[in-house]
């Protein structure tokens, strides 16, 4: 559950940069959004592995 909270925090923190990129055309904000999305991908993969492991050990 700790990693899921980190995902929520990351999404909240990148929201302003996403708005700057899409609405104002700020390319530096786009770079920050891309980095945050990569971090999100890594966190999501970690969560998937954790869930799979927990599911398989419960059997």
From TrEMBL:
TM segment ranges: none
Q: A single GO molecular function, which one?
A: DNA binding
Q: Name one Pfam family in it.
A: Hc1
Q: Which InterPro entries does UniProt cross-reference here?
A: Hc1 (IPR010886)
Q: Which domain of life is it from?
A: Bacteria
Family of the protein in this entry: Belongs to the histone H1/H5 family. HCT subfamily.
Protein's job: Might have a role analogous to that of eukaryotic histone proteins.
Entry protein name? Histone H1-like protein Hc1
Q: Which organism is it from?
A: Pedobacter duraquae
């Amino acid at each position: 559950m700790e990693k899921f909270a980190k995902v929520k925090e990351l999404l909240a923190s990148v929201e302003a940069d996403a708005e700057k990129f899409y609405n104002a055309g700020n390319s530096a904000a786009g770079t920050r959004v891309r980095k945050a999305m990569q971090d999100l991908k890594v966190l999501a993969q970690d969560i998937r592995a954790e869930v799979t492991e927990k599911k398989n050990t419960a059997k």
